[in-house]
Amino acid sequence: MFKVLSGNRAWVALKNSFYTSAVATMISLLLGCFFSFFLALTNIRFKALWVFLFMLPMMIPPQVTALSWIQLFGPSSALLRTLGMAPALGSPNPIYSPEGIALLLGIQHAPLVFLTMRTQLSALPKEQIEAARMSGASFGQVLKDIILPLCYSAMIAATALAFVSSLGNFGIPAMLGIPISYTVLPTLIYQSMSTFGPDMLNQVASLSV
């Protein structure tokens, strides 16, 4: 373990992992909280359909998600070509970047935040909300004084779930990070395993710890 930790690669991968996971967690929180509040606190029609659509990213393998976004932002993108925004042939794809990795991780794990928050919102004491509205409180006051304080524990749990899931995700960082030599801990462990050297198992075990 000392040999692995004394090298620079493990610390660079650790720093990269925390950066992409932290940014991805913020994206997941923004998306998941917004849609959970929107669907739980409004009377929008076809709620079941909206829930299904928002849960789709979690049902798609990370590698497929990465490939689809690579195609979306690439020079051959049908959507960007239609809009006249397709990058020139040979230009770098913006999705191959730490921020691109964080964006896809955030979208991939936003459903975890959504499920956690939606469960908490469905258990809110509706009589308190109705009493506050009947007493003249605005929706903003109800949100700030009643709903958000009751959702803090769910937000903490959702943050932890999104961060740990992003930290352990292999598919997206592998598809987008390895081509630009941007390693995170899961891809560094994979690269260490692929060497098949005499110290391979010790290195993998140390990185995992």
UniProtKB/TrEMBL annotation:
Keywords, ordered alphabetically: Cell membrane, Membrane, Transmembrane, Transmembrane helix, Transport
Subcellular location: Cell membrane
Keyword Hydrolase: no
CDD domains linked: TM_PBP2
Primary site of residence: membrane
Record domain ABC transmembrane type-1: where: 14-209
Membrane-crossing segments per the record: 18-41, 48-70, 142-164, 170-190
Family indicated by similarity: Belongs to the binding-protein-dependent transport system permease family. CysTW subfamily.
Protein name, UniProt field: Ferric iron ABC transporter permease protein
